[in-house]
Amino acid sequence: MIEARQLTKIFRDKKRGEIRAVDQASFCCQPGRIFGLLGVNGAGKTTCLRLLATLLTPTSGDATVGGYEIVAQPERVRANIGFLSTSTALYGRLSGRELVEYFGRLHGLSEELLRQRIENLFAVLDMNEFCDRRCDKLSTGMKQKVSIARTLVHDPPVMIFDEPTHGLDILTARAVVNFIRDCRARGKTVIFSTHVMSEMEKLCDTIAIIHQGRIRAEGTLAQLRERVGCEDLEDIFVRVVEEKA
Amino acid sequence: MNLRNLRLVYRKELRELLRDRRTMISMIVVPVVVMPLLMTGMGLTFVKLAGKVRQEIPKVMTLGGEDSTNTLAALQALKAFAFVPASRDFTNLISDKKLNAAIQIPKGFDAAVQAGETTTVTIYDYEGEFKSMFAAHALDQFFRQQRDHVVSQRLAERHVPEKLLTPFEIRQTNVASAKKVSGNLIGMILPYLVIIMCMTGAIYPSVDMTAGEKERGTMETLLCSPVARTHLVLGKGLVVLTVSLATACLSLCANGLAVVLLKKLTAEAGKPSPLPLTIDLSSLAAVLVMMLPLAIFFSGAMLAIGLFSRSAKEANSYLQPLLILTVIPAAAAVLPGIELNYRLALVPVLNVSLAGREILSGLYHWHYIAVVFGSMCLYAAVSVLVAVALFKREDVLFRT
C-alpha cells in the first residue's frame, strides 16, 4: 500500500526561483489495484514517483510505502519497491543475467533463491535466448524485459512505473502494459504515471490528475466522468486542468 | 558498515570497468606499453644520435691566422675538422647550422706566443646545438693542449720545474654508496612518475562511474537499490583506488624493465649508461606506502568532481586543470634547493614527492615523514567525505 500525506517538493533554482514540483499531494494506492497519475510533461509526475521511491527527499509531508516511511526508512522502502522508468537504464557492459543477479544480491537474496527467481523470471519473460548477451547489444524490447526482470527479482509488494511505455514500439509497449496488469493480478500495489490517455483508461483503477504539482482530481474513471460531466478522459483532463488554472 | 554490499558494488564496478576498452588503454596500454616505449625509444635515439654526431667531422671555419702557419698546420694535421673557406657571413652560417663552429686567430698569433705575450683566440658556436657544441669543444681542447705545450716549453727554457705550477692537487671523493647515489637520482624521477600515474589512472574510472553513469541513465537504476548511498560511493571509490594503484604499479614495473633494457642495449653498444640501476627495495616499498593516502586523496577528489559534473565532458574539463595543479608540485620536488620542511610537509602532492625523493636517497627524516603521512591521510579522509556527502545530495545526483 502507498499512502501520501501532503507530500511537497520544492526545488530552488537560481534563475527561476522556487519551483513547487509537487504541492501537498495526498493519495492512497491499495494492493491489487493500479493507481494512475495523469499529467502533462512537467506536471510533477516523475518528482512525485521519485519521492515515493526515496530517490528524492520531500520538502514537507510524508508517505508510507509498503508500510515504511519514506523519510525515516528510505532503505526499507527501496527494498519493498520495484521502480521502472525510462530513465532507469541498464548497465551496457553487463549481460542481462549479470545485471539481474547484481540487483538480486543488492536486495539481499540468497544464492539459491536468486537462482530460482531468475530461472522463473527468464522463463516467464522469454529471456533465455538473450539473457547472456551484453545489455548494450540488446534491442529496445529485450532491454525492457531485462528492466522488468530487474524490478521483479526481489518480488516487491509495491511497483512504481514512471511512463514505462515512453519511446517504446507498439509491441514492447503492449508487453509492458500486460506486465503491469499481471502485477495487479498478483496483488501488488501499483502506481503508474503517463500522459497517454488510452493507457490510463485501459489500466488504472483509480486516476489522479496532477497539474502544476497539485492533485486536481482523483477517483475512478466513472467517478471522474460523473463529476466533470464528460465521457472522454481527454475532455475530463482538459476540463479539470482549465477549471483550476 | 555492510561489507557484503561494499564487496558487491566493488566487484560489479570493477568487472564493468575492466570490460571497457578505454579503461584497458588508460590502465594498461599507456603505462605498460606507451610510456616505456617512449622512454626506451627516446633514450636509445638520444644515445644513437649523440654517437652519430660525435663521429661526424664538424665543419669549421678559420678566420685570420694567415701569418700563424704553425698553429694552422697543427690544427689541420689533426684531421678532426673539415675546413671551409673563410666568409664574413660566418655568424649567419653557424646560426643556420650550415657551419658548426668558427675560430678567430688574431693577427701575429704565433709571433705573440713566441714573444711570450698574452693573446686571445675566439671560438664562435651555436649554444645548445649539439653539433656546434661538439665542434667548439674539440677546438677548445686543441688550443688548451697548445697552451699547455707552450707553458711547458717556457718553463723548460727557464729551467723551472712544472711542479711549480701545481702546489697542491684537489681530489673530490664520493662518500655516498652507489645505492645512495642512484637512489638520489631515481628519487627525482620515480615519485613524480608514480604520482602522475596514480592520478591519470584514477581519471577515467572516476568519471565513468559518476558523470558517465548519470549520462547513461544507470545512476537512477542503482539508486533504486536498497543499499545505503555511503556503500555505493565507497564501493566506487575503492574501484578508482584499485585502478589508480594498479596503473602506478604497472607503470613502475614496466619502466623498471625499460631502464634495465636501456642499460643492456647501451652497454652492448659500448656506450656508458646514462641511467643508474640500483634501487633499495625497502625504500621503494616505503615510497609506495607514502603514495597510498595520496592515491585515496586523488580517488576521493576525482569521484567528487565526477559526481558534481553533469556529463563526462564537463568532468574532464574540470579534471584537466587539476592535472596541471598536480604536475606542478609533483615536478617541483626535482628543483634544486627545495627541501622537505614542516611547511612543505603540509602541501599535498609536493610533500609526497619530496618525501619520496628523500626516502629513495636513503634519508629517513621520521618527523617529516610522519607529518607528510598524517597530513595526506587527513586530506584523503576529507576528499572521501566530500565524495560521500555529494553522493547523498539529490541536487548533485540529479544535476543534468
Give the key terms:
heterodimer, A: 245 residues, alpha/beta, six-stranded mixed sheet, four-stranded antiparallel sheet, 10 strands, 27% strand, globular, B: 400 residues, mainly alpha, four-stranded mixed sheet, 15 helices, elongated
In short:
The complex is a heterodimer of chains A (245) and B (400). Chain A is an alpha/beta fold and 245 residues long. In chain A, 39% of the residues lie in helices and 27% in strands.
Description:
The complex is a heterodimer of chains A (245) and B (400). Chain A has 245 residues and is α/β, with parallel strands linked by helices. In chain A, 39% of the residues lie in helices and 27% in strands. In chain A, a hairpin with a 3-residue loop joins strand 1 (2-13) and strand 2 (17-29). In chain A, helix 3 runs parallel beside helix 5 (140-152), helix 5 (140-152) runs parallel beside helix 6 and helix 8 (221-228) packs across helix 9. The two termini of chain A are 31 Å apart. The relative contact order of chain A is 0.18. Chain B is mainly alpha-helical and 400 residues long. In chain B, 68% of the residues lie in helices and 4% in strands. Chain B contains 15 helices and four strands. A four-stranded mixed β-sheet of chain B has the order 2-1-3-4. In chain B, strand 1 (59-64), helix 3 and strand 2 (82-84) form a beta-alpha-beta unit. The longest helix of chain B has 40 residues, at 229-268. Chain B is elongated. The mean pLDDT of chain B is 88. The A-B interface holds A 11, 53, 55-57, 75-76, 78-79, 81, 83, 85, 87-94, 98, 102-103, 105-108, 150 and B 5, 8-9, 12, 15-16, 19-20, 216-218, 220-221, 223-228, 394-395, 398.
